[in-house]
From TrEMBL:
Identification of the protein by name: Homoserine O-acetyltransferase
Catalyzed reaction equations: L-homoserine + acetyl-CoA = O-acetyl-L-homoserine + CoA
Lineage of producing organism: Bacteria, Pseudomonadati, Pseudomonadota, Alphaproteobacteria, Sphingomonadales
Cell location: Cytoplasm
Active site feature: 149, 317, 350
Recorded superkingdom: Bacteria
Residues where substrate binds: 220, 351
Pathway: Amino-acid biosynthesis; L-methionine biosynthesis via de novo pathway; O-acetyl-L-homoserine from L-homoserine: step 1/1
GO-annotated cellular components: cytoplasm
EC numbers, comma separated: 2.3.1.31
Annotated keywords: Acyltransferase, Amino-acid biosynthesis, Cytoplasm, Methionine biosynthesis, Transferase
Amino acid sequence: MATALPLDLNRLTLAHPLPLDSGKVLEGVELAYETYGTLAADRGNAILIFHALTGDQFVARQHPVTGKPGWWERMVGPGLPIDTDRHFIICANIIGGCMGSTGPASPGPDGQPWGMRFPVITVRDMVRAQVALLDQLGIGTLHAVVGGSMGGMLALSLAANWPGRASRVLAIATTARHSAQNIAFHEVGRQAIMADPDWAGGDYYGGSGKGPEKGLSVARMAAHITYLSEAGLTEKFGRRLQDREAKSFGFDADFQVESYLRYQGISFTNRFDANSYLYITRAMDYFDLAEEHGGRLADAFQHVGDTRFCVISFDTDWLYPTAESRAVVHALNAVAAPVSFVELSAPFGHDSFLLDCPALDRVVKGFVG
């Protein structure tokens, strides 16, 4: 189970109940969020950043649980591509998350953690909550909305379902729906969590506080492989052993890549809730922007007006390959929406948007302005 949350998280309670796509309603929804920069007097310089599956609101600030730098610290800040000297940046932990926003670990109506009683949520529900957050902050039209990976799904959903709320939409390394392969990888992770005896049907918040750490660690390891590229793994690890002379071969982490994945898995359990992982991955798998609008992706964007779009993919991303981005671009072209598209070359696979990629910096800076 994730480490206890800091007490000083910046939270806002939504003024109205939140209707969900399932037909249920969440009362007293809390959103934990961070802001960077200064909101202009006319409130026209706001940029909303949506985080990815395992991200949170700490875009450009030290993470209070891990102590690590913000996940996009290289992109957001004074003088950086998303310039906090010019823009007011907002990033909120999604509903269903585990860094302060209402989710499975939050108290339910009876005061006990929701666990698996938490209602099913969708990507559109996540966006709906953040639109309500913007309303309470008094922000009407965003200068831009930005998201990578799952965050890109949210950005596209906002553009399609709340047209006019953003002047610019930047969607990076993302898709309009999951493929069977995407769903399959997520299901492996979910089954690993639910097969852990400490999952206890999702009711693991009391007592010793021990949750399904082994299952969640395996889920993270499986997912992390999809974020990388074969070339990147080969260059970084190859088939190198930890210590060829001293290692006694067996089921320990003999290969360096094994040790790396195990570290990724174990460290993940310190900051993430297993039930949140179940709910969020399921929401991503349900996401199908075309199906939401009658089965034709172009129809999802028929009311976007003069909103400008920029779609970015990476040539080594096999989780959401360039063909997925092209499908979004073709749909936007079909309704004559202003859109630019670029496929960038980077060796890092899907995670390229988080890592050192100067070409990405230039595109983001040029588009966001």
